[in-house]
Amino acid sequence: MTAQPNQSLIDGITCLQELSSSSRPLGNKELAERLGINVVKVNRLLKSLQSIGMVEQNKQRKYVCGSGIHLLAAQSLHNSTILRASLRVALSRAYSDRTLAIGTLWRTSVIYTYYALDTHSPLEGLSGYRTTDVNESTIGQALLAEKVGINGSNEDYSGHIGEELLNRLPSITQQIQDTGYYAHFVDSHYIDNICALLRFEGMSIGLAFANIHVHTDDMQAYVDELQVIANAIKDECLALVDSEV
């Protein structure tokens, strides 16, 4: 018998995720409206999260992330081999003609763990953390295509992503399987974004060059460079695993 998901646990984590991605403190009513959850339930969930230090209230009685979530974030980053490895490799690279982005997928949101514009130093890329809707991210679309088309996820995404993207997922999946990358075409001759995927210990991340304008005849050099980065991350992952044995 398949275990049924615990909806209260799901709602609590959803509250925490929405709060942690907000740029400002949120009251329980606003949070309830954002999530479409009854305000009484949201208030109860927030009080439970507050009791274990995951959220706190400011002087205006609005909620912010507590020290518990910062501890959890640090622990999860430290214990994720692929995230640690990808950040180490990213910090060793600087590009003056493109954006380097690294991200992962949660539901229909892309979380960028590294995002360095062409005007940024690698260290500034560490502060490039942001979340983006999957409809607006090549990394997100590639990871979603992998999850649905390659790994066979049975989650129903209709109503959560745009119909246009939903219809394109099979072709994105096919492009990844055929070439090892996903390129976003501006027209039949130029791309503005190209992404490759990397998986280690059950977790997938996307690596992308963005904010480019590259003719298809010159695209292979970008593909090759993404592969160099992916291989460096794989090697770093293996080195980290070996060092912890």
From TrEMBL:
Residues 6-67 form the HTH iclR-type domain. Transmembrane segments: none annotated. SMART domains: HTH_ICLR. This is Helix-turn-helix domain-containing protein. It comes from Vibrio ulleungensis.
